[in-house]
Amino acid sequence: MGPYASLNLAHHVGDEDSAVGTNRGIVADAVRGPVVFMRPAHGVAVAYLDESYLAGREPPVADVLITTVRGLSVATLAADCVPLLVHDAESGAVAAVHVGREGLLRGVVDTAVAAIMEARHGGVRQESVTFSIGPAICGRCYEVSSEVRAEVTARYPLARSTTRWATPALDLPQAVAGRLAHLGFDRVVRHRRCTFEEPRLFSYRRDRLTGRQAGVVSCDGPPA
Q1: Do 179 and 109 form a contact (C-beta atoms < 8 A)?
Q2: Residue 131 pairs with which residues in a beta bridge?
Q3: According to the 3-state scheme, what is the secondary structure of 128-183?
Q4: Per-residue model confidence as pLDDT tens digits over 142-178
Q5: Which letter does DSSP use for residue 55 in this model?
Q6: Are residues 77 and 173 in the same domain?
Q7: Parent domain of 44
Q8: Rounded to whole angstroms, how far apart are CA atoms 21 and 59?
Q9: Between residues 4 and 139, which one has the greater pLDDT?
Q10: For residues 124 and 112, what is the distance between their CA atoms, to the nearest angstrom?
Q11: Which helix (DSSP H) or strand (DSSP E) does residue 83 occupy?
């Protein structure tokens, strides 16, 4: 109810644990199997998930969850940051990535790409990898100081933006898409709904006290 309505999936935002557990159960039912929900730290740590996570093992703190375990799903939590999902059709590997401003600066997109390559012990063909950029705060709404904008755009020029009210801003989804293109990946789906503008989505920038939605990807294993 209240700030946590509409399927809050995060335990760390003040919602009742039982309600979050129920909501996570709904997601698990929807994907027909166990889901490992991320515990992000706005960094570049990678967690490789083995079969032990099928039984509900608690995930480590990480901003990239990756698995090749058939039947296991991984989920990234966000309420303005960029949820990035990855699938390699050759190996069956999937990854859920949390991309915030700090993670972007530290190279979490590159880290996620390297993790997918490592999952098949020798690299992947770029055309076999698909990325999905989920709803996040857009460049018209993500106001930052001019110093922060300069710091981020020095590395990611496509992140430069201006708010609807004419102040410095960052477009993190655009920066993620641009970085993937620079790395040679062109199978990228971008969902352009803005969390700040869309009342049905959780937004920390808009509401402060709020839940978290999730991007979920399921591993179906390598092709037969």
Answers
A1: yes
A2: 86, 188
A3: HEEEEECCECCCCCCECCHHHHHHHHHHCHHHEEECCCCCEEECHHHHHHHHHHHC
A4: 999 999 999 999 999 999 999 999 999 999 999 999 9
A5: G
A6: yes
A7: 35-203
A8: 15
A9: 139
A10: 13
A11: strand 82-88
Residue with structure tokens 């981020």?
152
pTM greater than 0.70 (yes/no) = yes
**Could you say which DSSP state residue 38 is in?**
P
Closest CA to 76 of 199, 217, 220, 219: 217
Sort strands 82-88 and 129-133 into parallel, antiparallel or unpaired. antiparallel
How many angstroms separate the CA atoms of 221 and 119, rounded?
12
CA distance 166 to 152: 18
Q: Is residue 223 part of a domain?
A: no
Where helices occur in the chain by DSSP H, the ranges are 17-31, 101-106, 108-119, 146-155, 172-182, 204-207
- Tens digit of each residue's pLDDT (9 = 90 or more) over 51-77: 999 988 888 899 999 999 999 999 999
Which residue's structure tokens are 């003040």? 14
Output the CA torsion sign for 26, 38, 87, 182: positive
Shared domain for 78 and 170, answered yes or no, is: yes
* Same domain membership, residue 69 and residue 16: no
> Are residue 155 and residue 77 in the same domain, yes or no?
yes
Q: Please answer whether residues 129 and 185 qualify as being in contact, where contact means their C-beta atoms are separated by less than 8 angstroms.
A: yes
The H or E element containing residue 96 is strand 94-99
Q: How far apart are CA 200 and CA 222, in angstroms?
A: 35
Residues 24 and 86 in one domain: no
